[in-house]
Amino acid sequence: MKDALFQPIQLGSLSLKNRIVMPPMTRSRASQPGNTANNMMAEYYAQRASAGLIVAEGTQISEMGQGYAWTPGIYTPEQIAGWKKVTDAVHVKEGTIFAQLWHVGRVTHPANIGGQQPISSSALKAENVKVFIDDGNNAPGFVDVVEPRAMNKEDIQSVISEYHQAALNAIQAGFDGIELHAANGYLVNQFIDSEANNRTDEYGGSVENRLRFLKEVVEAMVEAIGADRVGVRLAPFTSLNGTVDSNPVETYTAAAELLNSLGVVYMHIAEVDWEDAPETPLEFKKAVREAYKGTIIYAGKYNGEKAAKAINDGLADMVGFGRPFVSNPDLPSRIENGYPLTAHDPDTLFGGAEKGLTDYAEYQVG
Hints:
The protein has eleven helices and 14 strands. The protein has helices at 39-47, 77-92, 153-172, 187-192, 207-210, 212-225, 248-262, 282-291, 304-312, 323-327, 331-337, and strands at 9-11, 14-16, 20-22, 53-60, 97-102, 119-120, 130-134, 140-144, 149-150, 177-181, 230-234, 266-270, 295-299, 318-320. Strand 11 (230-234), helix 7 and strand 12 form a beta-alpha-beta unit. Helix 1 (39-47) packs parallel to helix 2, helix 3 runs parallel beside helix 6 (212-225) and helix 7 (248-262) packs parallel to helix 8. The longest helix is centred in the middle third of the chain and has 20 residues, at 153-172.
């Protein structure tokens, strides 16, 4: 049954060795000052290069795009050089790695963006959402987000240009491609979802209008580096960071049709993964498969058997395993051989150093 996970797959011009994805997970270990990827992060990703595809942690495209303390950027020469260490280390291990390009929009605090007011599709504060800032104690200090200002047309064009440049920067840094973070309540998602967007211009109202920012960002990145190196992550049914759509099936089926027309190389769907979360409706998954002809990745509470079934049923082409990859650098081998999984330490997920990042061991037989 698990064999489905270990079949090679073609992703654009890339030949991947298996169908297992290490999805993007914020770890907040970038070097300060400057939010720069470092040797510790290079070791972390290289340890996990047996994944068919690694999507690196969310990486802000500008100072305004940063939501949390100590997350890496990809808009300065130093940041590009830092990521080159990571991609080189992964490629030495014959891995494939994409950058996840990230703008958080309203999910931030002025302390993380140089004292500025956050920007979003609309001047709507995300309710009951906290982010962490560097309060000088080497431990994240959690604070409430603030009300953003609505982006004007100049802001929109400026951010689209930042995405375009970030895609170029990612290729310069040695990434094999990029994933647009359009999920989990961050900026692109704040345009897509109806309850986060009260605009009355061509970027708000109808589904087509709410998808316009996504469309223009993807077009800019495709123009920069080619559609076969651009993937997109969506989260149709999550309410993370206070972003909700009133009709997610309609909205995200339309998004799948849009991404198909733009020819992006994959669509990565983050499923709800908290305890007792509802399953993503089967009819929706079938509609997505009908609408989008490229590679489909699902992530969220999968184990080997469930992942293989999704592939065998034709609903997914690849499957992401998030938290298991934190503490099992050799996860593909463990899944393939039925070895037990090591549990992760939740206290070491964000911030800190090697502990909880690079000190998890591979499984020892015998």
